[in-house]
């Protein structure tokens, strides 16, 4: 038995973490997985999370019973307000269904599964994914029988957005196609459309009756401002674009291991939302039955208490500002000190956890093999892996491989 099972390659992102951990080299640098590190390269437990953990620990009323199938109601309601905005018409009109999921990956999966069952496809089920995108997007949609196809997004010539190509693809796709959009801090490129560009994208999506499948894993991380990073999603909702949003608290609350996320499906009216919720409940029941409680309780406390919410916003700014400072320092080292050939302005223009350096797979490999600097082959670096102690080492080695 199982002799015919083919050997699968290791995950392209998590294999880097394993290789980094096994490497005894003192100056090794991990720029692989998108996980925040402080200036001493340590995982950072947000002070507000420490505080709410203590509150939960001392709460004698809590038990270990099952949560409802769609999750902790005070968590999902607050999570919906966070992404859609507290006065969103999609909430006041009672036409949003929010389901607690196993982080952003679980939200993507449940959203994809729901589409695979109930979306009125115009032809074969297909999802349009940006080229490039988070590698897992491809696997998630394939798993539920939806074929990923790519739309132009990143232009290697400008190391920026291929806006014309993107719009062209939205126009050329058959009506009622489904497009996956990164709400902010595009992974892996760090290249986001401007607000003006989002407006054009939304208009074409509306005209072509496309479906917007938003993935929002970095709210607050891009700009340090939760509302600013939710701008595109809120704008699409106001315009009446049919959409869903996948939400994760892994990055912005530093709750990677708790797997706390949500799927929000905005429907045309509350009656439809009731039917959507009933089917999401059926799907969730057979997949995970009931979502885990701990992370949802933590986030719920933060979102539902004005004081804790302010503390969280301060913690988010701490992370976002450190990353932005690293962008400026890397840019300064490359352009002013090392005089590295090429234009490096994209380092400061890109946004969020990642920067797409523009180096090729050969150069990326050189960094891994010669300098013990771990990054994905596409040249993506997690900015959070850089700090005041290792940034010069990285800049010098980047300089070496591009010369
Ligand atoms: C990443 O892209 O590094 C993160 O989103 C972690 C993951 O799950 O891949």
Automatic annotation (TrEMBL):
What cofactor does this one take?
pyridoxal 5'-phosphate
- Which enzyme type, at the first EC level? transferase
Provide one Gene Ontology cellular component. Answer: cytosol
Q: Which UniProt keywords apply?
A: Aminotransferase, Pyridoxal phosphate, Transferase
Recorded hits in NCBIfam families, A to Z, give: PRK09257.1
Subunit structure, as described in the record: Homodimer.
Q: Which family does it belong to?
A: Belongs to the class-I pyridoxal-phosphate-dependent aminotransferase family.
Q: Would you tell me the protein name for this molecule?
A: Aspartate aminotransferase
């Amino acid at each position: 038995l199982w002799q015919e099972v083919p050997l699968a390659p290791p995950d392209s992102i998590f294999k880097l973490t394993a290789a980094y951990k096994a490497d005894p080299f003192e100056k090794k640098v991990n720029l692989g997985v998108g996980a925040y590190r402080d200036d001493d390269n340590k995982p950072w437990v947000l002070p507000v999370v420490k505080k709410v953990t203590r509150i939960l620990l001392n709460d004698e009323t809590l038990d270990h019973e099952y949560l409802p199938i769609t999750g902790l109601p005070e968590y999902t309601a607050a999570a919906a307000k966070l992404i859609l905005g507290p006065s969103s018409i999609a909430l006041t009109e009672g036409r949003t269904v929010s389901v607690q999921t196993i982080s952003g990956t679980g939200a993507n999966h449940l959203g994809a599964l729901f589409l695979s069952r109930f979306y009125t496809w115009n032809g074969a089920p297909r999802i349009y994914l940006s080229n490039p995108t988070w590698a897992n997007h491809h696997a998630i949609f394939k798993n539920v029988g939806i074929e990923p196809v790519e739309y132009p997004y990143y232009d290697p010539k400008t190391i920026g957005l291929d806006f014309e190509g993107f719009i062209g693809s939205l126009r050329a796709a058959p009506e009622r196609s489904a497009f996956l959009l990164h709400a902010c801090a595009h992974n892996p490129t760090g290249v986001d459309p401007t607000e003006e560009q989002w407006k054009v994208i939304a208009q074409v999506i509306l005209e072509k009756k496309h479906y917007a499948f938003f993935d929002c894993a970095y709210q607050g991380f891009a700009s340090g401002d939760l509302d600013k990073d939710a701008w595109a999603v809120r704008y699409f909702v106001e315009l009446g674009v049919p959409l869903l949003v996948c939400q994760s608290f892994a990055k912005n609350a530093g709750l990677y291991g708790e797997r706390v996320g949500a799927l929000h499906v905005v429907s045309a009216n509350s009656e439809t939302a009731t039917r959507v919720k009933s089917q999401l409940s059926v799907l969730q029941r057979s997949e995970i039955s009931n979502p885990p409680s701990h992370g949802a309780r933590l986030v719920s406390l933060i979102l539902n208490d004005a004081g804790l919410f302010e503390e969280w916003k301060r913690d988010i700014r701490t992370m976002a500002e450190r990353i932005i400072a690293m962008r400026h320092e890397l840019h300064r080292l490359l352009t002013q000190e090392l005089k590295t050939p090429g234009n490096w302005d994209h380092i400061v223009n890109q946004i969020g956890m990642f920067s797409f350096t523009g180096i090729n797979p050969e150069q990326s490999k050189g960094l891994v093999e010669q300098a013990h600097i771990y990054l994905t082959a596409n040249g993506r670096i997690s900015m959070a892996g850089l700090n005041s102690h290792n940034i010069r080492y990285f800049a010098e080695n980047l300089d070496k491989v591009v010369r």
